[in-house]
Amino acid sequence: MEGVQRFADRTDAGVQLAEEIRDRGIDADIVLAIPRGGLPLGRAVADALDVPLDIVVAKKIGAPGNPEYAIGAVASDGSVWRNEAALRGVGVDSDYFEEKRAEEAANARRKADRYRGDRPKPDLSGETVIVVDDGVATGSTARACLRCLNETDAERIVLAIPVGPPRTIHELADETDEVVCLETPSGFRGVGQFYEDFAQVPDEKAMEYLTTEP
Question: Which of helix, strand or coil describes residue 61?
Fold first, then answer.
């Protein structure tokens, strides 16, 4: 797309995010990546800023018969975001939503435990936390992750992403202290549109980023 940069891959996007974070004078204490796609970027950002890398996990809540259409999202601690417009549009009742919320919260907890292994959850008290993903469309999982972190004693929470549509970025600014976004194209169709290489990141590869030291 003319006038909008494309990233070579997720690591390249992470390097550029780290440069922008430094340019803004954000003094980070820890980076939390949203698995799976956020981990290659998270590793690059954490290494560049010389801070630890960990994860924050949320799962999308899909509509009946269309699991890819997010009617909400829930984090591993149960923090939830409801897509009210989508809920009205598909006519979902509260029983369905609560059933799926509980199911996906359990899935998010299992995923967090599997990725973290024997490592304890980080203590975020008084910390400046950078939350990293490879991009957002509706931002459903990012919103649930931010709501989870807003329940902690973190001093400051910054969402750092390479690309997202203007409306979503504007809405996410209400969920956190600051949003760092490199590109907000009006012609946004999907995150992968802005990467040369946007291959899926398998779980095994994603977990390797957590054990790689700078």
Answer: strand
Contacts of residue 67, defined as CB under 8 A and 6 or more positions apart, other chains included, come to: 60
Q: Please report the pLDDT score of residue 211 as a whole number.
A: 85
Please measure the distance between the N-terminal and C-terminal CA atoms of the chain and give it in whole angstroms. 34
Rounded CA-CA distance 12/118 in Å is 30
DSSP class of residue 211? H
Closest CA to 56 of 31, 24, 84: 31
Contact 159, 185 (CB under 8 A): no
**43 with 205: CB under 8 angstroms?**
no
Pairing state between β 53-55 and 58-63: unpaired
The rounded distance, in Å, linking the Cα atoms of 95 and 74 is 16
What would the two tokens of residue 113 be? 């435990």
Q: Are 11 and 40 in contact (CB under 8 A)?
A: yes
Closest listed residue to residue 135, CA positions, set 5, 2, 29: 5
The C-alpha atoms of residue 97 and residue 184 are separated, in whole angstroms, by 31
Token pair recorded at residue 190: 């999907």
The 3-state DSSP class for residue 45 equals helix
**CA separation for the pair 76, 108 (Å, rounded):** 5
Can you give the pLDDT at residue 4? 72
Indicate the pTM of the whole model: 0.95
